[in-house]
Amino acid sequence: MRVEDYDEVVEIWREGGITIKKADSKKGFRVMLQRNPDTCFGATEDGELCGVILGGFDGRRGIIHHLAVKKKCRNRGIARELVQMLEKKFREKGVEKINFWVEKPNMEAVDFYRRIGYHLRNDIVTVSKVLFKGEHIARRNEE
């Protein structure tokens, strides 16, 4: 994955229903790749970027950021392969657990993750704080 892929990556994210936020800017993408050069992957077919997964590692846990596959490339095992590549890299780093978030409207993603062995956590609540003005965290349950 390269910073030069950014525009194509954003198109894939949007097509996948991922909400693009300030952290997903080109600068944010560059920082993610710099900090996690061996856990961010793209899948190509005939020279075209078809899928992307960004993996972060905080020294304890692995985090999946923005797994998405173009609609025309779906149902070919690309998403599963991207997750498997990331899991392999995380195992090499000693990661024991992977955490991530899925936006509530994207139940298709939840179903996919369940099929490949992930489960929903009902024993925790996500708590967030915006540190920079201009950031927005959607409160879907309050809208």
How would you describe the overall organization of this protein?
With 143 residues, the protein is an alpha+beta fold. The chain has one domain (3-142): Aminopeptidase (3-Layer(aba) Sandwich), CATH 3.40.630. The protein has four helices and four strands, in the order H-H-E-E-E-H-E-H. The chain has helices at 6-15, 26-35, 78-93, 107-115, and strands at residues 40-45, 48-57, 62-69, 98-99. Strands 1-2-3-4 form a four-stranded mixed β-sheet, sandwiched between helices. The longest helix is centred in the middle third of the chain and has 16 residues, at 78-93. It is globular. It starts with 5 loop residues before the first helix and ends in a 28-residue tail after the last helix. Residues 137-143 have low confidence and may be disordered.
Provide the descriptors you would attach to this structure in a database record.
143 residues, alpha+beta, Aminopeptidase, 4-stranded mixed sheet, 4 helices, 31% helix, globular
Indicate the topology.
Elements (H helix, E strand, L loop, with lengths): L5 H10 L10 H10 L4 E6 L2 E10 L4 E8 L8 H16 L4 E2 L7 H9 L28
CATH class: Alpha Beta
How many β-strand runs? 4
The side-by-side strand order for the widest beta sheet comes to 1-2-3-4
What fraction of residues sit in β-strands? 15-25%
- CATH fold naming: Aminopeptidase
Q: Helix tally?
A: 4
Unreliable residue runs = 137-143
Oligomer: single chain
- CATH homologous superfamily classification: Gcn5-related N-acetyltransferase (GNAT)
Task: Give the overall pLDDT as a whole number.
Answer: 90
Q: From the 3D coordinates, which CATH architecture would you assign?
A: 3-Layer(aba) Sandwich
End-to-end distance, in Å?
A: 36 Å
